[in-house]
Write a structure and sequence with these properties.
Domain AB hydrolase-1: 22-247
Number of helices: 15
CATH architecture of the largest domain: 3-Layer(aba) Sandwich
Keywords: Hydrolase
Mean pLDDT: 89
GO molecular function, one term: hydrolase activity
CATH superfamily of the largest domain: Alpha/Beta hydrolase fold, catalytic domain
Strand content: 15-25%
Shape: elongated
Helix content: 25-40%
Distance between the termini: 61 Å
CATH topology of the largest domain: Rossmann fold
Strand order of the largest sheet: 1-3-2-4-5-6-7
Protein name: Alpha/beta hydrolase
Largest sheet: 7 strands, mixed
Radius of gyration: 25 Å
CATH class of the largest domain: Alpha Beta
Structural class: alpha/beta
Low-confidence stretches: 1-7
InterPro entries: AB_hydrolase_1, AB_hydrolase_fold, AB_hydrolase_sf, NTF2-like_dom_sf, SnoaL-like
Number of domains: 2
Number of strands: 13
């Protein structure tokens, strides 16, 4: 079996649903299950939560393939590609190195990263005498427990037991390769990350491996807020202080608004011309305002009916030509033709709530004659479904636009 074949069969677990996703990448000697507490803290987020085991660890300890950062980035990247939705990568320790490689290769799909107690992409480059004890951890659970205790001095004994068990079956060969991977890092890693999106760096205040100086240097390579430090937490802050980490992730994505590619749900709904696809993107109390409407349409069911009618019964073509983002708002410039050959141009402004759902849509059509005709046609298609008072009357538009 080739490495490519293996990448296609690496299992991953998805909980939740939505038109966006968190992808969680664990670190050295761990497994995807280490994220369960953080995932639980994000249940209210309308997004898919994706966890996985990196080959050589977790359920994949028998994987015979090579272990290095690029192979892992290819494996995780294949999962991101398969999701086909905007993604925020959440990664810990050496997982941060992997996340940066994945994100740099997918700048339009990866909208941000949360890096917890991250190891720098360029590696640690600790000397042999310092790294030798790490390489000897394979199969030695007592030594693994001591290491975790050293890097997370405030962790409870019960939590130490859980984490130590994660590394039980990682082979000595895999451990040595893993240490070489995160210690060596990527040769000639750029001083400014190739990923142009925002990143949040979270550090455990009691972590003696990822120091404040190291975390600050990593954070400076990205756009994003200053390092967030969780007092008392160690190297496994996402396990020790999962609730706080989940809260920081929510704060981050509220500011981020999944802005890069965030309008993909709107564009997909137009492409599919489906009422249900529009409904999936909308908040319950969504408000539609438009130049073609005499007054706003309110509520998911009503708005989805209007949008489905416009997409499937009036437009022959809609092309999104430009886009811009500002926090929780997206701006889409477009041009279109209807089934009668009338041409339109316009701008759509999408505003989202904290959960990423579309809360308000403002659609501006031009020119005036065309938009009056559009309003009349829309009213005819929705007669008896949506109050006629929302639409232009026949008397208000030129005869040739009443088709």
């Amino acid at each position: 079996m080739t490495d490519q074949d293996r990448r296609q069969t690496i299992p991953f677990h998805v909980s939740g649903s939505g038109n966006r996703a968190f992808v969680f990448i664990h670190g050295f000697l761990d497994a995807g299950s280490i994220w369960d507490r953080v995932v639980g803290g994000l249940e209210a987020q309308d997004a898919r939560k994706v966890t996985l085991d990196l080959p050589g660890m977790g359920a994949l300890t028998a994987d015979p393939g090579r272990i290095d950062l690029q192979r892992y980035a290819d494996d995780v990247g294949a999962i991101v590609d398969a999701l086909s939705v905007p993604v925020v990568l959440v990664a810990q320790s050496m997982g941060a190195q992997i996340a940066e490689l994945v994100a740099a290769a997918r700048p339009k799909q990866v909208t941000g990263m949360v890096l917890i107690t991250p190891v720098p992409l360029q590696g640690v480059h600790a000397p042999d005498e310092m790294i030798a004890p790490f390489k000897a951890l394979g199969g030695d659970l007592d030594a693994q427990r001591q290491l975790r205790r050293m890097l997370a001095p405030n962790m409870t004994a019960a939590d130490l037991d859980i984490l130590t068990e994660l590394g039980r079956d990682v082979s000595a060969s895999s451990v040595r390769q893993l240490v070489d991977a995160w210690n060596s890092g990527v040769n000639e890693a750029p001083s400014w990350s190739d990923f142009d999106g925002p990143a949040l760096v979270i550090r455990g205040g009691a972590d003696s491996l990822v120091t404040q100086e190291m975390a600050t240097a990593i954070a400076k390579r990205f756009k994003g807020p200053p390092v967030k430090t969780l007092d008392g937490a160690g190297h496994w802050a996402h396990f020790e202080a999962a609730g706080q980490v989940a809260n920081l992730i929510v704060e981050f994505i509220d500011q981020l608004a999944w802005r890069s590619g965030a309008a993909s749900d709107w564009k997909n709904a137009f492409a599919q011309k489906s009422a249900s696809t529009f409904a999936d993107a909308f908040a319950d109390d969504v408000v539609l305002e438009a130049a073609v409407l005499v007054k706003p349409v309110v509520g998911r069911d009503n708005v989805k009916r209007v949008m489905e009618a416009a997409a499937s019964k009036i437009y022959a073509r809609v092309e999104f030509t430009e886009s811009a983002n500002d926090g929780s708002q997206q701006y889409l410039q477009w041009e279109a033709d209807d089934l009668d050959g009338v041409a339109y141009k316009g701008i759509t402004i999408i505003s989202r709530n904290a959960a990423g759902k579309i809360a308000n849509v403002a659609i501006h059509h031009r020119p005036l004659g065309a938009l009056l005709g559009f309003s009349y046609k829309l009213g005819q298609h929705l007669k008896g479904v949506i109050d006629a008072g929302h639409f232009a009357t026949a008397e208000s538009i030129p005869e040739q636009l009443r088709k």
